[in-house]
Amino acid sequence: MKTLVIVKIGGNVLDDPEARESFLGDFAALPGPKLLVHGGGKIASEMGLKLGLKPTYHNGRRITDDATIELVSMVYGGLINGQLTARLQSLGCNAIGLRGSDANILPARKRPKTSVDFGWVGDLDPSKLDPFFLSTLLGMGLTPVIAPLTHDNQGNILNTNADAIVSTLATLLSPIYKVRLIYCFEKKGVLERPDDDASVLSELTQEDYSTMKANCSARGGMLPKLDSAFAAAAGGVDTVIIGAAEDLCKNVKKNGTCGTRIMLHN
Amino acid sequence: MKTLVIVKIGGNVLDDPEARESFLGDFAALPGPKLLVHGGGKIASEMGLKLGLKPTYHNGRRITDDATIELVSMVYGGLINGQLTARLQSLGCNAIGLRGSDANILPARKRPKTSVDFGWVGDLDPSKLDPFFLSTLLGMGLTPVIAPLTHDNQGNILNTNADAIVSTLATLLSPIYKVRLIYCFEKKGVLERPDDDASVLSELTQEDYSTMKANCSARGGMLPKLDSAFAAAAGGVDTVIIGAAEDLCKNVKKNGTCGTRIMLHN
Question: Which of A14, A206, B2, B41 has the fewest CB atoms within 10 Å, i.e. is most exposed?
């Protein structure tokens, strides 16, 4: 079975031009099949402010009204995805930018309205996912670059969490590839003590994670990220790592010791 | 040889929600392989105004500065392309949105600065064009939906005239398919007398066109459109038609009599 490296980037790697450039050089140089999923960073909020839109959040999740889905379609699907793809091409990586509606790679459902109406937000519909098109592209030597946008098959674009997308795609492709999934983020890995950047855990088991949730050393935005990482590990993904973008190449080495490896059990 | 229908839309078909919806229904229902190229319409200028950008033109062509290439990357590559693709998917057409950098389908060169600096504007580089990826997608039953954005292989996105793109792609695919190329626009076809909507020409030869240019009955924005249409006909494209979007289905019928057929000679 061939190894497929799947990388998720967001935040600082997108927002800081130097960090982005450095990451893209490392990513383009990775040998073998690879796939990139990106989030949105601060760019969408900044562009939204210029357009007079004020972002609304509920528990850290953006409410996506009509104007906001247009905004993220433009910023995630047009600006960021287009820039990443063009830059990767110039670095010799045959990238292809995709959103969920493209070739129907990410069919989703609009999140039902409960006490909160998240608007044009979608959750992937795993029963309708098919790895055929993505594995065909990978087999042709192409590198999919995927924006966090899905669709409801009724003509609507849906804003979808990039961590959830990458976890689902890694699981979907695991019967075909030995998948090495890397979540890039600001820290060197999962921290044992949130305020101590030197307390990077080399491994994190589900038991450890339960403890960390209970004592609040895992909290906030880390929870959905870690939940999706554990879902990938449970779904058969060979290796799941959370670490810093600048350690990407070291992470890809088979016995790399950078970042935190997500383990179902000890 | 299979027939491939290639359609170019812009202007009113994109700007008017009803015209767009009606067109997409007709387009999705066309049998066999098909490909869509879209322009930008007024949406980019409107979004630019909201962002405080004032469009600058030179002889009807937009000057593309740093802010403008970001704007058109967002509007053409993100918003319009994403909306068209998602809507076509909902209509049962397996669309895939693409820009020139995606799988390197449209390599281009930044237009050299002369007396006018057009900025981030590109002209296709026919020597580097390869039909392999697009014909592979078509062979898989996918419908490429192409935004008027190319790239210079140095990481830069370039704004590129959609008429020129569609003409070049139709020529590129003509050795593989019997191509029927349809330019959709506001009028029912090329008008013999610009102010008389009933004076639609059923055919236009290169000789007629020279006469019309000489007596100014072909002028303005029609000139680059007709130049690109004649270039396609000269490049081996089987059928080239200019007509109204609402006549699309009639145009596709082999002996359709709608619109103006572009002929090299009588």
Answer: B2
The pLDDT assigned to A255 comes to: 59
pLDDT tens, A85-95? Answer: 999 999 999 99
Distance between A68 CA and the closest CA of chain B, angstroms: 11
Nearest to A154 among B82, B90, B101 (CB): B90
Give me the total of CB pairs closer than 8 Å, taking one residue from chain A and one from chain B: 125
Calculate mean pLDDT across residues A37-53: 90
Distances (CA, A) of B139 to B62, B105, B136, B143: 36, 16, 5, 10
Within 10 Å of residue A116's Cβ, how many Cβ atoms?
Answer: 12
Distances (CA, A) of A53 to A25, A45, A110, A156, B187: 34, 8, 22, 20, 37
Q: Which residues contact A150 (CB under 8 A, 6 or more apart)?
A: A99, A100, A101, A106, A107, A108, A122, A124, A157, A158, A160, A165
Amino acid letter, residue A128: K
* Strand A95-98 with A143-146, pairing: parallel
Query: What's the CA gap between A16 and A41, in Å, rounded?
Result: 10
The shortest CB-CB distance from B156 to any of A73, A86, A133 is to A86
- Reported as a single tens digit per residue, the pLDDT across A94-144 is 999 999 999 999 999 999 988 889 999 999 998 999 999 999 999 999 999
Residues in chain A: 266
Any CB–CB contact under 8 A between B122 and chain A? no
Domains of chain B: 3-263 (3.40.1160.10)
Nearest by CB to B82, from A51, A85, A99: name it. Answer: A99
CA angle B26, B28, B34 (to 5 degrees): 110
Our CA-based measurement puts residue B187 at a distance from the nearest CA of chain A, in whole angstroms, of 28
